[in-house]
Design a protein that fits this description.
The complex is a heterodimer of chains A (327) and B (329). By secondary structure, chain A is an alpha/beta fold. Chain A folds into 2 domains: 171 residues, 3-Layer(aba) Sandwich (Rossmann fold), CATH 3.40.50.300; 69 residues, no CATH class. Chain A is 33% helix and 24% strand. In chain A, strand 2 and strand 3 form a beta hairpin. Chain B has 329 residues and is of the alpha/beta class. Chain B has 2 domains: 238 residues, P-loop containing nucleotide triphosphate hydrolases (Rossmann fold, 3-Layer(aba) Sandwich), CATH 3.40.50; 80 residues, no CATH class. The interface between A and B is large, with 40 and 42 residues.
Amino acid sequence: MNDAAVVLELRDISVRLGGRRRWLLPAIPAFPAVSNVNLEINAGEILGLVGESGCGKTTLGRTVLGLQRESAGSIKLNGEIVTGLEPRDARRKRRAIHYVHQDAAAALDPWWSVGHALEEGLIIQGVPHKAERQQRMRDMLAAVGLDSDAAKRYPHELSGGQLRRIALARVLLLRPSIIILDEPTSGLDMSVQATILNLLLDLRQRLGLTYLFISHDLSVVRKLCDRVAIMYLGRIIEIAPAERIFTRPLHPYTQALLAAVPRLEPQHLSAPQIRGDLPTSAPATTGCSFAPRCPHALPLCAAQQPVLEIAETGHEIACHRWRELAQ
Amino acid sequence: MGRVVLEVSNLRVQIKGDEGIARILDRIDFRLDQGRILGVVGESGCGKSTLIRTILGILPDGASIESGRIMFEGEDLLAFSESEMTRTVRGSRIGFIPQDPYLALNPLFKVGQQILEIMRWHARPMAGPGKPAEQHRKHLIALLRRVQLPDPEGALERYPHQFSGGQRQRLVIAAALACAPTLVIADEPTTALDVTTQQQILYLLRELVEEFSISMLFVTHDLSVVSELCDDLCVIYAGQSAEQGPVRAVLDAPEHPYTRALLACHPDRSSGFVGIPGAVPSPLRAPPGCRFAPRCPQAMPACTTRIAGMIPVADDHRVNCLLYEATLG
């Protein structure tokens, strides 16, 4: 994986959401949803982006896509800088990147047949002949494992698993090279989930795709992803090859997260390692954002923000105490 | 084994809709013993919600119970009238923890007001000095402290939106326990939560079941949560009971072909990604006999005509599958 070409490169990406000035009143400060994220995605790789709700994974995905404007930093797509543009131009520059929504049913118009929804993308992308559009749609439906009959159906007639396939087909018709998958299996039953994940692996192979896989389902991430980045309150706190994250996590948050995953094999329900909920207000700006919940926090942790440092080739960690704790 | 708290036998429920009659539950059988947590597991559309609504007596219009018994502490709930259910069962002897606490709480009222109103209607008279309203308030504050809600006194005066997802779940857990029930039914209470919060809530539920000596029916689709939390497990497929037994017995040595297939899909057990071929039948067009037969690798001709009924294979481990009929002798 080391010699693979970097297709997408994020440098110091920060995104601030909301915030406005008010007349005669104190201004509402903007919320730092994503802070100083550095990330590289190699061609053909599946990078997992893991974190709890509200940690900024979806915002980061939207920023990569160009739907959300970054406040600082730059993004390089195939070596070309695509940042610093208005959302409309940013989107145009990033045609190679597409996004599959978390809720496939909500992403489709209930009044449109599946065929209509699929065709729309092709019309926008300027495929002029109806016959060609029809042919490409039939091929794509077959590729995601559906009959061409599905094109005549409406979203409410389809099951959860079929809707995910339609959502994928709609995006794949546009011939992307990078796909951002936002929780592609949430809400699916275990037996259906497996077929969707197999389809994703199969399509990556056949079409040479690269995935940014946003998820909080750690058992799926372990099986599917090549590398995993763990996010906490807008920052990447640890990134490593998938097997390593799961066998030798270094950050206390990663360790707590993994310990919290329920497992099938016998083990006693362990006492939670971290207390309290994910804070919803803006995180403290000076120190490590996990410090208030961290069982190993020192005064230093609350005062100074740790930066990502290399623990081993490909394994980066942002924690003041990882060396001591690893022993 | 302990005293039986809840025993459902041969339960059949059908719903009349625009497209015909659907038998949503077709022979549900299970038993919950005192002080234990029974996990009821099934995929979406298998009838989990209908089962809960049948036990609580809140079936939607058009639904009717064809046969069966629901014995709760020695009484058949199906023989109770609507007003008896309201006065003596729902909210008082059976507590309910919903899947989505945000939908369960009224956004326009303070949470204290809402839970105290439940207690005013359903709580049994308490011993000790003071007016009932004050006793209830004191009891509720102690309960909120027990479920580790920060600042319990202040919490009573706040509105549902002022709490985080995990805190709201703690609130509805306290509400379910407020009237000292003997049975608590939980409907996927952790599906909407993050894993670290889920772990805290599961741990709390486990402690509360022991501390308050209650029994719990925990309905979910997640086998790993059942493995961590429950004592017993009942697997349901398309409205039919497939298998029931102690959690470790069922998970380590599943007997029903459906349980085996479901476990084989689990990422903790499989090396690749394995699914179950075919799809769950619509209850409108359910096959006769065993509903898993069309997808079952071991199906026999007899499977399409009748179901076996619960056949014991070991102590407290029962399977609804014709493969085991021969062992019955």
